[in-house]
Design brief:
Number of strands of chain A: 4
Shape of chain B: elongated
Distance between the termini of chain A: 20 Å
Radius of gyration of chain A: 12 Å
Helix content of chain B: 25-40%
Structural class of chain A: alpha+beta
Strand order of the largest sheet of chain B: 1-2-3-4-5-6-7-8-9
Number of domains of chain A: 1
Order of helices and strands of chain B: HHHHEHEHEEHEEHEHEHEHEE
Strand content of chain A: 25-35%
Helix content of chain A: 10-25%
Largest sheet of chain A: 4 strands, mixed
Shape of chain A: globular
Number of helices of chain A: 1
Oligomer: heterodimer
């Protein structure tokens, strides 16, 4: 991929049917990293919920935020 | 400094003892000691402290007026009247948020006299660094007339109609670092001056304004995509090459699904140095072409979500 400095991607999966579960999201994060090895942090929006996948060593870990728990400060500002 | 209610500090007891000692001796408190007391006082106590003596008045008022968050129109009007009549107060204000709390005061009409008082108050805020201004009616833009204002902001968040007053105001802000425009125009009837906002690093707002800012040293850009806009999104992305040397983060709001693939392809060629890109719709039925579009050399990826299977081959 041309974007060798890309660290964070934020993608919207809301319209997927069925909506992707944690296992499917993990496959997506792995695939994305194959083609963009610099990516270390991927956020998936599924409706009003945002899933954060973070690369920890060789493994991806995730947490999610929904409703009022969604962080006020958008991640795009903190890059 | 934001006023925090209920703050305590280990030094509070020490300061209290010093206060009692000095008061019982009939002496006045030093400005330094008053400053330390005020620093750790509860926000609700500051107006009372300000009435006790001159030393407390000065330091208390500096903290009270440092950051004003005014969503109650009655309180806002009174605060602005105080600032406009007492010249010492205006320079204390560093952050100013003026709006109408829609949950509590939605039915209150903000007349032109209200905005005239806001303007009179802002006229005295020579040290203002950040403001948020929201006029629900949108048309009281005269409040931003730069001939009536005397500050250079770092951060401006404007929720008011885009017109000549706004354009002139922005042209007067030579050190503005961050700008948010919530009621962006959908045309170029009021264009920005070519040399306006020379220091701007972050912009949030309409694509019609963003496209005029691409020669600034932007590092962070969030664009609201409006399908009725006179600037097509893909055309805008091509023009991002003008700011690609500095741009680190590119965020789209409401980017149409149908152009997500083409948008990512263009972004990867015009802004290859980006560290963040989002929020892009990730179309489940077109993942192969989506990834390829970004310059990937991809083998066969078959996603069959409708069949509840996910196969990578």
């Amino acid at each position: 991929m041309n974007m060798h400095n890309l660290r964070i991607m934020e993608l919207d999966l809301t319209k997927w049917d069925p909506q992707p579960t944690g296992a499917l999201q993990k496959i997506l994060t792995t695939e994305l990293r194959i083609f963009c090895p610099s990516v270390e942090f991927i956020a998936f929006w599924v409706g009003g919920t945002r899933f954060f996948w973070t690369l920890d060593g060789d493994n991806w870990t995730y947490h999610y935020e929904t409703g009022q728990n969604i962080r006020f400060e958008p991640i795009w500002k903190n890059v | 400094m934001q006023v925090q209610l209920g703050e305590t500090h280990p030094q509070t007891r020490e300061i209290s003892l010093l206060t009692m000692s000095s008061a019982s001796a009939g002496g006045s408190l030093s400005p330094e000691l008053c400053g330390r007391i005020v620093k750790w006082a509860r926000g609700s106590d500051l107006p009372f402290l300000a009435r006790t003596c001159k030393s407390f008045q000065t330091v208390s008022e500096k903290r009270i007026y440092d950051t004003l968050v005014l969503g109650n129109p009655t309180v806002a009007f009174d605060a602005c009247r105080s600032i406009s009549t007492a010249e010492r107060l205006g320079p204390y204000v560093h952050q100013f948020f003026i709006y109408q709390d829609q949950n509590r005061y939605r039915n209150v009409t903000l007349h032109v006299q209200f905005w005239q008082m806001v303007q009179a108050a802002m006229n005295h805020m020579c040290n203002l660094e950040k403001f948020y201004i929201h006029d629900p009616a949108g048309h009281n833009t005269f409040v931003l007339d730069p001939t009536q204002l005397n500050f250079q902001l770092d951060d401006a968040q404007i929720r008011i109609n885009w017109d000549a007053h706004v354009v002139d105001f922005l042209a007067s802000q030579l050190s503005l670092d961050r700008l948010t425009v919530m009621y962006g125009p959908d045309n170029f009837e009021y264009p920005l001056a070519p040399d306006a906002l020379p220091a701007l690093k972050q912009f949030i707002g309409a694509i019609t304004v963003a496209v005029q800012l691409l020669t600034r040293p932007l590092t962070h850009l969030q664009v609201h995509v409006d399908e009725t806009s006179s600037v097509p999104v893909l055309s805008f992305i091509r023009r991002l090459s003008a700011t690609s040397a500095t741009l680190r983060s590119l965020s789209f709001l409401e980017l149409p699904d149908a152009i997500a693939i083409d948008a990512l392809k263009l972004i990867s060629t015009t802004c290859p140095q980006l560290r963040y890109v989002g929020v892009l719709s990730f179309p489940s039925r077109h993942v192969s072409s989506y990834l390829s579009s970004a310059g990937f050399v991809i083998n066969k990826i078959i996603l069959t979500c409708s069949a509840k299977k996910f196969i990578v081959a």
